[in-house]
Design a protein that fits this description.
- The protein is built from 1 helix and 13 strands, in the order E-E-E-E-E-E-E-E-E-H-E-E-E-E.
- It is mainly β.
- The protein has an 11-stranded antiparallel sheet with strand order 1-2-3-4-5-6-9-10-11-12-13. A two-stranded antiparallel ribbon has the order 7-8.
- It is globular, with a radius of gyration of 21 Å.
- The mean pLDDT is about 95.
- It comes from hydrothermal vent metagenome.
- This is Haemolysin activator HlyB C-terminal domain-containing protein.
């Protein structure tokens, strides 16, 4: 890959990124033949982050365009003959997915500090494609980075949009109490309440496929960060009529990180 920084400052940064990759995924099937997806993909991306002078607003965004190529470096080619391909996906038209596709991805985050102890976070992720994509390139909806009331990758879709609104509170009632070292609790501990929503579409679906799905949920959580250590715990319940695949309601997510 190649990355270039266009601008770098305290309040605004921007970059460009070119990538060329070879991707492979294998699916072990209990009954029948195992399946495999082979892709060769080129992508171009640009992104930025910006903060207001008083740092009440923090904004970041990225746009990525990706294109796959039939037959290049062993990538798949589309066909109607199942004997000529190992791909994992077949469309309703009878065509098996090939290596050629085009898609655009968008990511946007906006943090707005209402007061020193209260922050709103708006998050948006989207993908658009008119092609029959395999799981390597589909957008997943559900999980800790999408709708948290559902399991990770509850659905995979060719087109999708996912958004969240979070209200973050810095250690309400004890933010000025001393915590660790020279830090106060308001600097290391946050509580949050959130609402998530996602909707996804399949291109050329099979009769047995659901062309459109939508997920929604709400929940609460806590986040902790001190020096190189961070932790995240969140619990969420579904709001809509879509049943949860793993039948867990509420859903729990826990994450620990340490930077070496």
């Amino acid at each position: 890959y190649w990355r270039h920084t266009f601008q770098r400052s305290r309040s605004f940064n921007s970059y460009g990124l070119l990538q060329f990759s070879r991707k492979s995924a294998r699916l072990d099937v209990t009954e029948g033949e195992d399946r495999a997806d082979e892709l060769t993909v080129a992508s171009i991306e640009t992104g930025f982050d910006w903060s207001s002078p008083a740092r009440r607003h923090l904004v970041s965004g990225r746009v990525q365009y990706s294109e796959g190529f039939d037959g290049l470096l062993g990538a798949m080619e589309p066909t109607r003959d199942p004997a000529e391909t190992d791909t994992s996906r077949r469309g309703g038209s009878g065509v098996y997915a090939g290596g050629q596709f085009a898609k655009t991805n968008l990511g946007y985050d906006h943090w707005y500090q209402l007061t020193p102890k209260h922050t709103l976070h708006f998050s948006l992720r989207a993908q658009d494609s008119n092609d029959l994509l395999t799981s390597l390139e589909q957008m997943s909806i559900g999980g800790p980075n999408s709708v948290r009331a559902y399991s990770t990758s509850e659905f995979l879709r060719d087109k999708a949009v996912s958004g969240s609104v979070e209200w973050l509170l810095r250690a309400p009632g004890f933010s000025q109490w001393k915590a660790f070292g020279n830090r106060r609790w308001g600097e290391v501990l946050q509580f949050l309440f959130f609402v998530d929503y996602a909707k996804g579409w399949l291109n050329d679906p099979l009769v047995s496929d659901r062309e459109v799905v939508s997920l929604s949920g709400m929940g609460a959580g806590v986040r902790f960060q001190y020096e190189k250590f961070s932790a995240r715990f969140e619990v969420a319940s579904a709001l809509g009529d879509e049943p949860v695949g793993n039948e867990r309601d509420p859903q729990y997510f826990f994450e620990l990180n340490y930077l070496f």
